[in-house]
Amino acid sequence: MAKTSPGDFVRQVRAEANKIVWPTSRETVMTTIMVVIMTGMLGLFFFGIDSLFGWIVQMLLGLAR
Description:
Layout: H1 6-17, H2 25-63
């Protein structure tokens, strides 16, 4: 591995940092909204699945009495 001087390192870091493309505020808001919607949908889905399995277990335990 080649040794890099501190000055070269700083120049390389600045060159790489200039390549970063930051999202616009609209893209950030839209992404945030999509994450909130998808999280809510997954929460409802798993709540439903958990309720279904809970009901099934209660039925099976009721039969065992």
